[in-house]
């Protein structure tokens, strides 16, 4: 059987859809297989981090993000009208939380404009689905993967669907199918970590006395943690009595009401339960994101506590990192050795997130020792340096890949560039919509552009005014920086990332 497509992506959630988009922009043929009949409407993330938002801006979703954020703002305004809790003043000053400590100040951050996007997961999936459809990407729903056979030159994937069983052969496979990943299990990826100790709940419900659940924000009690808002009916609870006996069992109105009463200590009733989900704090990370021709991205590769929307951001950036590299290999522009940089760059980022989520669980526990540590962290966050460190950690903007082969040493190299405004007033990301790399050339006579054009057509050259020149990979990672007319190291960076 010959390869009929280049890459099979398993999972049509945000991570799988973005991976397929990246592959398609890079010229690869992708097929997405999804077990569910329709996009999940389960209660999940209400936002994602700035780096994830920037990955979407680079792929033409600026208007869709703005529209979704406007809808979120309207919902928050409705919450304000319902409860009298004014969110606007606090939101103008603070930018996220650490373990429910909403003390990360905008004025302490180096770049306060790089902030989380208030877009819930169903809205995110909708905008990614629309972009995938516009690119002609085929998404086959109700296709559950049942078998994977790998060889040196390809992967054969089998499935069952309402139309019967089927199979396809591809050059590569990406598992984006969540924390219980079938791809991870069938391909025998090692997935070490820690077992769960508590249960998280998120729900949308009609409560008879919502005023008893104020103030807005995370409320830590002797029995757990609860939060009401910031949109009408939204509940978030941490139950420290242990992990769920059966996480797959339906979440009932009675269960949500019992946990809400226990964690809040308030006499409230849940009159109607609209949606609910539960999960635990098991924390795991694969040893490698690649086995042969199979890859993992998103929750298939890492699971952890859901604080700050970090998991969704991690997964989207996995897709942004892997997609263009895999497409370059498939085109024949780059050797397969490029793919090893996927694990090398993304796994340390996930390790750091797993560590900070474990720390957040530790200082949320209801015992006095955890409370004392929590109070100490809150006091430390009064210091600008500490506040900046925690803010950059939670938003991910301090991420820097270790581009060890770079001949030019500079703190900018390896960082992910924001959406800079160029000298002509345009946005940097608008020059990256087609998935190509970009050279921002400030050299006299455009010496850097001439060198790039002589080596590869895969980089768009943009003339800029005074300042340094930058070579950006398709994922906006800064691969090279040159000051003045010095282009030393540019050839090496081009060969490492763009020229076989």
Automatic annotation (TrEMBL):
Keywords: FAD, Flavoprotein. Its cofactor is FAD. It comes from Pandoraea commovens. It comes from the Bacteria. Gene3D superfamilies: 3.30.70.2450, 3.40.30.120, FAD/NAD(P)-binding domain (3.50.50.60). The keyword Flavoprotein applies. Residues 5-356 form the FAD-binding domain. This is FAD-dependent oxidoreductase. Pfam families: FAD_binding_3, Rng_hyd_C. SUPFAM superfamilies: FAD/NAD(P)-binding domain. InterPro entries: FAD-bd, FAD/NAD-bd_sf, RIFMO-like.
């Amino acid at each position: 059987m010959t390869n009929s497509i280049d890459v099979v992506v398993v999972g049509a959630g945000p991570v799988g859809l973005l991976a397929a988009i990246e592959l398609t922009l890079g010229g690869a043929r992708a097929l997405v297989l999804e077990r569910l009949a329709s996009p999940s409407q389960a209660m999940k993330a209400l936002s994602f981090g700035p780096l994830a938002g920037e990955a979407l801006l680079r792929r033409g979703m600026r208007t869709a993000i703005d529209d979704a954020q406007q809808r979120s703002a309207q919902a928050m305004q409705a919450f304000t009208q319902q409860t009298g809790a004014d969110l606007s003043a606090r939101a103008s000053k603070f930018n996220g939380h650490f373990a429910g400590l909403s003390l990360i100040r905008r004025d302490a951050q180096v770049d306060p404009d790089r902030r989380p996007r208030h877009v819930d997961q169903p809205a995110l999936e909708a905008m990614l689905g629309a972009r995938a459809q516009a690119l002609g990407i085929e998404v086959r729903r109700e296709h559950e993967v049942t078998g994977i056979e790998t060889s040196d030159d390809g992967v054969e994937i089998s499935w069952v669907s309402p139309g019967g069983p089927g199979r396809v052969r591809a050059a590569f496979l990406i598992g984006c199918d969540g924390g219980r990943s079938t791809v991870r299990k069938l391909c025998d990826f090692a997935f070490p970590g820690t077992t769960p100790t508590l249960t998280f709940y998120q729900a949308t419900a009609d409560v008879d006395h919502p005023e008893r659940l104020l103030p807005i924000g995370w409320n830590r009690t002797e029995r757990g943690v609860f939060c009401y808002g910031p949109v009408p009916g939204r509940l978030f609870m941490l139950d420290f009595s242990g992990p769920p006996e059966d996480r797959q069992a339906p979440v009932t109105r009675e269960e949500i009401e019992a946990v809400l009463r226990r964690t809040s200590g308030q006499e409230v009733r849940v009159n109607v339960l609209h949606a609910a989900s539960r999960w635990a704090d098991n924390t795991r990370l694969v040893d490698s994101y690649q086995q042969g021709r199979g890859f993992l991205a998103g929750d298939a590769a890492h699971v952890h506590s859901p604080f700050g929307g970090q998991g969704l951001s991690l997964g989207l950036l996995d897709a942004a990192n892997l997609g263009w590299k895999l497409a370059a290999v498939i085109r024949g522009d780059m050797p397969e050795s490029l793919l090893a940089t996927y694990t090398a760059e993304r796994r340390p980022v996930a390790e750091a997130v797993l560590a900070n989520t474990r720390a957040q669980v530790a200082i949320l526990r209801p015992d006095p020792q955890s409370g004392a540590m929590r109070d100490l962290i809150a006091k430390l966050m009064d210091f600008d340096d500490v506040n900046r460190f925690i803010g950059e950690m939670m938003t991910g903007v301090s991420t820097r890949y270790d581009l060890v082969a770079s001949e030019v040493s500079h703190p900018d190299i390896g960082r992910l560039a924001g959406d800079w405004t160029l000298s002509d007033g345009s946005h940097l990301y608008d020059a990256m919509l087609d998935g190509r790399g970009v050279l921002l050339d400030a050299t006299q006579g455009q010496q850097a552009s001439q060198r790039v054009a002589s080596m590869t057509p895969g980089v768009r050259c943009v003339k800029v005014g005074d300042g340094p020149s930058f070579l950006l990979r398709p994922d906006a990672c800064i691969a090279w920086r040159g000051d003045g007319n010095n282009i030393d190291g540019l050839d090496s960076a081009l060969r490492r990332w763009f020229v076989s």
